[in-house]
């Protein structure tokens, strides 16, 4: 990877970190997910900066952005669009919904009913929408950044496993450290967001995405990764482990994490850095143990036989 691309990536991270204060690991993970062409699920309490992160990412990457507020009365047609009869022409014409953009913020996704949630399934996997036997491609690049409230909050519906599996990573921003929260109180986060400048363009982003699969993963590294995946399927704490698609997601996320850190080869540390965000929402435990705790437990069970 050229020095120029490294500088662009570092500038992108610095720009986002100027808005999302004190959350450098989460910001790096979000950017790596975009480079890996993956969708992002942010799970946190309201008011933690999830929407601000999505808006900042779109501005820095120079992508078109739309927000969909998911509520209990939302219909699939409100997301993907619907055929509308035009009397002057005597025919139906498909009116595109807000999903036809480059970055979709699916805000509070789990407040909508499962039927409305499923409106995003084809878009996330196939990057197209099918209506009445006709397929409409979505813009490229296309990303869904979804937020969800904790299930303990009123008016929420669990996301089905099939939808969770379509998100490359799930993570939380969490409360800010006191020093950064003091900066928020002294300043105006909205002004910071408005001041964000575009760093990348679509051509550069597409080029970086094409580099991710080329990041070298040696046989030794792949063996370590596969043993981690196998552990999620064999451990007695797990009822369901990672699927082959989950294993591929872990590899892509590891490659993107290495790239964001300026390397063209994957280290075991890269796999370890992304394992919990990639695996925790895909595995199902046999007990009430939180998936993040279970994922960390599984990670600790597999040793690195030989460092790269």
Explain the layout of strands and helices:
Layout: H1 3-17, H2 24-35, E1 39-43, H3 50-61, E2 65-69, H4 76-80, E3 81-86, E4 91-96, E5 103-107, H5 114-117, H6 121-126, E6 128-131, E7 134-137, E8 143-148, H7 161-164, E9 167-171, H8 178-186, H9 189-194, H10 202-211, H11 219-234, E10 238-240, H12 244-260, H13 268-279, E11 284-285, H14 291-301
Parallel strand pairs: 1-8, 1-9, 2-5, 5-8
Antiparallel strand pairs: 3-4, 6-7, 10-11
Outline:
The chain is about 45% helix and about 15% strand. By secondary structure, it is α/β, with parallel strands linked by helices.
Protein described:
It is a single chain. By secondary structure, this protein is an alpha/beta fold. It is built from 14 helices and eleven strands. The strands form four sheets. It has a five-stranded parallel sheet. Helix 11 crosses helix 12 and helix 12 (244-260) crosses helix 13. The longest helix is centred in the last third of the chain and has 17 residues, at 244-260. The protein is globular and about 70 Å long. It starts with a helix and ends in a 7-residue tail after the last helix. 40% of the residues are buried.
């Amino acid at each position: 990877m050229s020095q120029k691309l490294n500088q662009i990536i570092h500038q992108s991270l610095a720009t986002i970190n100027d808005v999302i204060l004190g959350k450098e690991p989460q910001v790096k993970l979000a950017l790596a997910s975009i480079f890996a062409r993956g969708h992002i699920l942010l799970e946190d309490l309201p008011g933690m900066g999830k929407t601000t992160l999505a808006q900042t990412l779109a501005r820095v990457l120079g992508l078109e952005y739309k927000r969909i507020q998911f509520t209990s009365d939302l219909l699939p047609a409100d997301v993907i669009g619907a055929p509308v009869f035009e009397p002057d022409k005597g025919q139906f014409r498909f009116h595109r919904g807000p999903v036809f953009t480059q970055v979709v913020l699916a805000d509070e996704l789990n407040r909508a009913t499962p039927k409305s949630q499923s409106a995003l399934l084809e878009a996330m996997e196939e990057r197209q929408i099918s209506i009445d036997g006709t397929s409409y491609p979505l813009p490229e690049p296309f990303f869904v950044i979804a937020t969800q409230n904790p299930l303990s909050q009123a008016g929420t519906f669990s996301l089905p496993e099939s939808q969770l599996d379509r998100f490359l990573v799930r993570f939380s921003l969490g409360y800010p450290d006191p020093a950064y929260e003091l900066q928020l109180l002294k300043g105006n986060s909205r002004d910071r967001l408005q001041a964000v400048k575009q760093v990348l363009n679509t051509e550069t982003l597409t080029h970086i995405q094409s580099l991710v699969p080329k990041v070298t993963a040696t046989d030794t590294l792949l063996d370590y990764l596969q043993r981690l995946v196998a552990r999620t399927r064999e451990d007695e704490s797990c009822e369901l482990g990672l699927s082959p698609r989950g294993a591929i997601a872990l590899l892509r996320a590891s490659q993107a994490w290495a790239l964001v850190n300026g390397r063209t080869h994957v280290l075991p540390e890269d796999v370890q850095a992304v394992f919990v965000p990639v695996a925790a929402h895909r595995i199902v435990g046999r007990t009430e143990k939180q998936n993040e705790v279970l994922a960390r437990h599984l990670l600790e069970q597999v040793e690195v036989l030989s460092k790269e």
